[in-house]
């Protein structure tokens, strides 16, 4: 029986590298690239089919930063597939990152340089904004949209005598200190990316506590330091030109500098080969690359309280109800406005006659 695998954010970077590795591993799987930009998704699909002739690769338009887009995409998925084996939640954003240049150069020539690059702690802040749903954009894209997607796809994920997997692409930048259970959207902070990634770690734990009995298993992955479009957007290209030789040198002494999307997808691919019952529900699985270039996966315990994770899940459920209600009201207003315009147009036509 062919496996059904959906990957969000699959048109470039780690997502595309994962798709390439999955098709190499299993030529019979049915792969779905869930992307916001369909032109880039089509290009990614063509590239995959060039190297894997005959592969079954579907496209799905999905903007996880928009609840309406998530609901529409979920309906397409439910009409297209009768189950889901793997749901890789890889899409994410880090908008308008601001780098403390002074802290950067101070850390560059200190013994803390490896940790600085690996976690960006004390180095990065972001300027978040509200999206069309009235939610903080980073929270909505990195966490909430994926939460709603899981909820909508439960009938395909939770089936009798069938196990399914949800795999989150997290980050070493996911820090407990950046997250507040009283401000889950991080409206008052300056590190929305770190907050959202820690929240996704928590949500994974909550999903396991609630849904393992229904056959749904959730895992979290840290891809390490990978050079993707998101990473390159943090600093001007001239800075990367300057520091890349240093980073390749540092890689000899640390295993967290995976650097390439292929290496960063190591743990994501490794989880595809594991039985869910053998995995630690509270571990984050790290993609690592040795100084000699060997890729491997290592689990590390996450600093997460199960009860707080359950509180986050409950808060997300309540927020989902609010957002759905507002969406219904907005759509009703739009329909009423369209009827009003149609009536005006009809009246105008009658007067002309």
Automatic annotation (TrEMBL):
<keyword id="KW-0752">Steroid biosynthesis</keyword>
<dbReference type="GO" id="GO:0006703">
    <property type="term" value="P:estrogen biosynthetic process"/>
</dbReference>
<comment type="pathway">
    <text>Steroid biosynthesis; zymosterol biosynthesis; zymosterol from lanosterol: step 5/6.</text>
</comment>
<comment type="pathway">
    <text>Steroid biosynthesis; estrogen biosynthesis.</text>
</comment>
<keyword id="KW-0325">Glycoprotein</keyword>
<dbReference type="InterPro" id="IPR042829">
    <property type="entry name" value="HSD17B7/Erg27"/>
</dbReference>
<keyword id="KW-1133">Transmembrane helix</keyword>
<keyword id="KW-0256">Endoplasmic reticulum</keyword>
<comment type="similarity">
    <text>Belongs to the short-chain dehydrogenases/reductases (SDR) family. ERG27 subfamily.</text>
</comment>
<keyword id="KW-0444">Lipid biosynthesis</keyword>
<keyword id="KW-0521">NADP</keyword>
<keyword id="KW-0472">Membrane</keyword>
<protein>
    <recommendedName>
        <fullName>3-keto-steroid reductase/17-beta-hydroxysteroid dehydrogenase 7</fullName>
        <ecNumber>1.1.1.210</ecNumber>
        <ecNumber>1.1.1.270</ecNumber>
        <ecNumber>1.1.1.62</ecNumber>
    </recommendedName>
</protein>
<dbReference type="GO" id="GO:0006695">
    <property type="term" value="P:cholesterol biosynthetic process"/>
</dbReference>
<keyword id="KW-0812">Transmembrane</keyword>
<dbReference type="InterPro" id="IPR036291">
    <property type="entry name" value="NAD(P)-bd_dom_sf"/>
</dbReference>
<dbReference type="InterPro" id="IPR002347">
    <property type="entry name" value="SDR_fam"/>
</dbReference>
<keyword id="KW-0560">Oxidoreductase</keyword>
<comment type="subunit">
    <text>Binds to the short form of prolactin receptor.</text>
</comment>
<dbReference type="GO" id="GO:0004303">
    <property type="term" value="F:estradiol 17-beta-dehydrogenase [NAD(P)+] activity"/>
</dbReference>
<keyword id="KW-0443">Lipid metabolism</keyword>
<dbReference type="Pfam" id="PF00106">
    <property type="entry name" value="adh_short"/>
</dbReference>
<dbReference type="GO" id="GO:0005789">
    <property type="term" value="C:endoplasmic reticulum membrane"/>
</dbReference>
<keyword id="KW-0520">NAD</keyword>
<dbReference type="GO" id="GO:0000253">
    <property type="term" value="F:3-beta-hydroxysteroid 3-dehydrogenase (NADP+) activity"/>
</dbReference>
<dbReference type="InterPro" id="IPR052834">
    <property type="entry name" value="3KSR/17beta-HSD"/>
</dbReference>
<dbReference type="GO" id="GO:0047024">
    <property type="term" value="F:5-alpha-androstane-3-beta,17-beta-diol dehydrogenase (NADP+) activity"/>
</dbReference>
């Amino acid at each position: 029986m062919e496996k059904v695998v959906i990957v969000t954010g699959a048109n470039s970077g780690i997502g595309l590298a994962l798709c390439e590795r999955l098709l190499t591993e299993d030529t019979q799987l049915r792969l779905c690239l869930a992307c916001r930009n369909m032109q880039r998704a089509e290009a990614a699909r063509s590239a995959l089919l060039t190297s894997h002739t005959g592969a079954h690769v579907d496209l799905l338009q999905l903007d996880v930063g928009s609840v309406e887009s998530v609901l529409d995409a979920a309906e397409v998925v439910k009409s297209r597939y009768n189950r889901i084996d793997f749901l890789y939640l890889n899409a994410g954003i880090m908008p308008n990152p601001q780098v403390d240049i002074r802290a950067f150069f101070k850390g560059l020539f200190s013994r803390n340089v490896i940790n600085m690059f690996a976690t960006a702690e004390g180095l990065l802040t972001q300027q978040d904004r509200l999206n069309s749903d009235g939610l903080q954009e980073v929270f909505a894209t990195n966490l909430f949209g994926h939460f709603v997607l899981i909820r909508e796809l439960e009938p395909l994920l939770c089936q009798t005598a069938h196990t399914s997997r949800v795999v989150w692409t997290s980050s070493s930048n996911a820090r407990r200190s950046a997250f507040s259970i009283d401000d889950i959207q991080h409206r008052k902070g300056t590190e929305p990316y770190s907050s959202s990634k820690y929240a996704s770690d928590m949500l994974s734990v909550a999903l396991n506590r609630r849904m393992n009995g229904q056959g749904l298993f959730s895992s979290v992955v840290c891809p390490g330091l990978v050079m993707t479009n998101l990473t390159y957007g943090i600093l001007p290209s001239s800075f990367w030109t300057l520091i890349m030789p240093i980073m390749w040198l540092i890689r000899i002494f640390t295993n967290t500098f995976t650097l390439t999307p292929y290496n960063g997808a190591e743990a994501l691919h490794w989880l595809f080969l594991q039985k869910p019952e053998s995995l630690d529900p509270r571990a984050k699985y790290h993609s690592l690359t040795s100084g000699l270039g060997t890729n491997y996966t290592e689990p590390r315990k996450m600093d997460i309280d199960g009860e707080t994770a359950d509180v986050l899940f409950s808060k997300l459920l309540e927020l989902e109800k609010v957002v759905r209600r507002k969406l219904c009201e907005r759509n009703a207003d739009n329909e009423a406005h369209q009827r009003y315009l149609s009536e005006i147009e009809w009246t105008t036509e009658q007067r002309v006659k």
